[in-house]
Amino acid sequence: MDSRRESSETLRNKCAACYRQYNRMEHLVEHMKVSFHSAHEPRCGVCAKHCRSLESLREHLIGPLPKVECARVFAARGCSICLNLFDSAAAVRYHRASTCQFTRAAPMPRGSYGGRAVAMACKMVGGGSDGSLDICARVCLIGEDENVIFQTYVKPTTTVTNYRYEMTGIRPEYLRDAMPLKIVQRRIQDILCNGEPLWKIRPRSSGRARILVGHGLEHELERLGLEYPAFMIRDTAKYPPLMKTSKLSNSLKYDIHTGIQDPYEDCVAAMRLYIRMRSQAHPRDYASGSGETQNNYPAWRQRELERMSPEELLALSGSDYYCWCLDF
Asked: Which residues form the C2H2-type domain (predicted)?
C-alpha cells in the first residue's frame, strides 16, 4: 500500500512538459521556476513531450537512440523535415510535396509583395596576410515570397588574399567592377528602413521598416558596416528553438551547404525557418519575453503552487525569449 502511494505521489510530481519526475512537489515547483517551459517548445506528436529545441526533438524521434514507440509511429506517419506528425502516410506525402514550410515558401497574403520580413545573406572572401580576415564580397536580400530584392557583388575596400573559391565561387574578375561598399550600404539601408527614418523605428510599431532575417547577422552587418535595431533582427543562429540542445553551437540543423555556397539559398533557408516559427499559434494572454518575470512563480505563492497539478504549473510558465509568432 505504501509503495503504491509513493508511486502515485511521484507520478503527481512529474513535469507536464519534459516528463522529469521528482520525489517532492516542492522540487517540481523549483524545476518549473527555472525551466521556462513554454507553449512554443517543439513537442513530440506521439507522446506530447516538450523538447528544448528542434534538434532535441529530432533526436527523440529519429536520432541514434530514439524513444522506441515514438520512433515507430513517426516512421510511418511523420515528416522527417519539419518533424510534424500526420494521420496517414498518404498525408505525409502530400504535405512534403505541397505544404511543408521547409521545402517551399509559405503562401503570401493577397495584395502583399515581399512581406514585411527581408532575409539577407553574405559571402565573405579573405583578407590580411593569412587570408583569415572576412571581407564581404557578395550580398543577397529576398522577401517572404523568396523573390530577390537586391543582389550584387561588393567591391572590396582592402586587398583580397584568399577568394575562398571552393566555398564562395567568387573569382577576381567578379569583383573588379563590383558595386562600391558605400552604395551597397545605402541600398540595403533603404530596403530595410523602407522610407522610415532609422531613428524613428520602434519595437512592435506599425511603421514601414522591415524585419531583418538571417543566420549569423551580427557578423554580416559588422562586415557591411551597417547598424540596425536589435529588436528588428530575427537571427536563426540565436533563436532557442532552432539552436542545438547544448545552446553552445549556432549552426543550423537544416544545412543546405553543398560545395559552393549560394547566398540566395542561405536566404531561403533562413526565411523558411523564420516563417515556420512565426506561423505558430500564440495562446491568448501567454507570457513571452525575457527574464524571470515571465514565469509566474513568486516565493509568496509557494504553498499555492505546491497544491497545483503539473498541468496547472505548466500553464503559468512562459518562455524566456521573444516569440517570433508575435511578429504576425
From this structure: 13-42
